[in-house]
From TrEMBL:
Residues 17-190 form the Flavodoxin-like fold domain. This is NAD(P)H-dependent oxidoreductase. It comes from the Bacteria. Keywords: Flavoprotein, FMN.
Amino acid sequence: MNSEPPVWTPITPAAPRHLFILGSARQGGNAERLARHAAAHLPAATPVQWLSLREHPLPPFEDRRHEPGAVFAPPRGPEAELLAHTLAADHLVFVVPVYWYSLPADAKRYLDYWSAWLRVPGAEFRARMAGKTLSVITCLSDDDPALAEPLLQTLRLGASYMGMRFHGALVAYGNRPGDALARPAQLAAAARLFQPPE
């Protein structure tokens, strides 16, 4: 009897693309609105995909790495879709508000699943993530951008661990829906986020 774990085979699209990962507990929040403004300033031919973590719910993550004989089987359902979209992207953009100085729960859970995907036979997750680009668009209900630093550091360190390039972050003020779009400087920063350096 063959005891080898099943191998997961991802589908890779022909063209690289920007994947905007919506991690807020609110639909159409300030970070998402700024992200859509930023995306509108990408070159016209750039493939763009929007992925809502609320629409791909994941169960609580079980860390079985150190259990005897533990195997992370090929994912199914929403987890399989998230893994496939993640690997297919060339540039991952985390679109997340600051919740308690860190990531919202759905976004943190999505990152926790990266630990499992590192161990899914056939996914080659770390090797395929290496060289991709990661950016962040975040909003907080305070004028001090330093309060977003714990969130940013989580994603910077995660990108470094995976061999990804951290492109940068847009940290903006936004409390009530629409606040972020009321500040011209923030709109201008969003428009510049994906522009090549001069």
